[in-house]
Amino acid sequence: METSIRRATKEDMGSVLRLINELAAHEKKPNAVILTEEQLKKDGFGDQKMFTCFLAEADDQVVGMALVYYRYSTWKGKTVHLEDLIVNENYRGKGIGMLLYKQVMRFALDQGVKRVEWVVGDYNTNALEFYKSTGASIMTEWNTVQFDEKSIKNFLAK
Question: How confident is the model at residue 1 (pLDDT cuts 50, 70, 90)?
Fold first, then answer.
């Protein structure tokens, strides 16, 4: 099986959304995705580009993706955040995730960033072991903190 990695185009956003929904179902949250294909097109290819996406293709179809965007660290400067690295379940264990991961790291190096960061659920032991094996630091002393839209509104209403 030959696999190729390329940058996503606007026309690929349907495939990207399919993979995002596959991930949500895999994480037992099939109804959590409210993002639409149109929103992906606007956010990835509009006037204010919000992300860059790389795709893995095998057997004439999109079988994986890595979506990244810039962040800014007050300690390091420009960084890249890896939001999701997803490989279709039928194609896992074939090295596709590593190809996407390396593409993200090449992109980061080419962009001159000082750090690449991402979040992995503590339940995802396979991913944690994979990242550890590549030399990534797992920072267990930090907690991810979020406000959803409803929480933002409730907080501001106080």
Answer: confident
Decide which of 36 and 127 is more confident: 36
Q: Which CATH number fits the domain that encloses residue 17?
A: 3.40.630.30
b (16+ CB within 10 A) / e for 10-27: eebbebbbebbbbbbeee
CB contact set of 100 (below 8 Å; sequence gap of 6+)? 5, 54, 56, 64, 65, 66, 85, 87
Secondary structure class of 61 (helix, strand, coil): strand
Q: Buried b / exposed e across 75-107, counting CB within 10 Å, b at 16+? A: eeeebbbbeebbbbeebeebebbebbbebbeeb
Number of folded domains that form the chain: 1
Distance CA 19, CA 45 (A): 19
In terms of residues, how long is the chain?
158
Which residue numbers are catalytic? 131
C-beta of residue 107 within 8 angstroms of C-beta of residue 68:
yes
- By residue range, what is the domain housing residue 59? 3-157
Return the pLDDT at 144.
86
